[in-house]
Amino acid sequence: MGTNTIWAFVGLLIFLAILIKMGVPGTIGKALDKRAKAIEDELDQARRLREEAQALLAEYQRKAREAESEAEEIIMLAKREAEVMEKEAQAKIAEFVKRRTKQAEDKIAQAEASAVGEVKDAATDLAVKAAEKILAKKMAGKAGKKLLQASIAEVGSKLH
């Protein structure tokens, strides 16, 4: 059994010698080097892509912060504008109420003056009618004729 092992060993050595003579280890080494180089290139590319992704992430985060800041500024401006608009609206409402109150007061004063005028006119008419009745009663007869002639003469003298 020993000789079979020796022949197997010799066969192996011959096989290995043929492989070495044909340059198989160099080819295998070149293939492994080529594969290692490809893996290294892929790792470099992955590293570059990772760095680019991190840069993009940082840029997007910065843009998100800027957008958030701008949104907060817009909200603050909108609140200020709303407050100003509210104050203006309140001032306009107060002015409107004041103007309407003044108009109502003017109408009331006008109606009051008109009513006072109507009462005065009615009182004057009533006083004239009462005076007419009283004078008509007192002017009946001779005394009335004398007073009438004296009045006509006085009016005539004042006209000339």
Major pleated sheet: none
User: Spans with pLDDT under 50 lasting ≥5 residues?
Assistant: none
Helix content: over 70%
Straight-line distance between termini = 185 Å
- The average pLDDT value, as a whole number, equals 86
The total count of strands amounts to 0
In short:
With 160 residues, this protein is mostly helical. It has 3 helices and no strands.
Task: Record the SSE blueprint.
Blueprint: H1 2-22, H2 24-138, H3 142-159
Detailed description of the structure:
The protein has 160 residues and is mostly helical. It contains three helices and no strands. It has helices at 2-22, 24-138, 142-159. The chain is rod-shaped and about 195 Å long. The protein starts with a helix and ends with a helix. 0% of the residues are buried. The model has no long low-confidence stretch (mean pLDDT 86).
What attributes characterize this protein structure?
mainly alpha; 160 residues; 0% strand
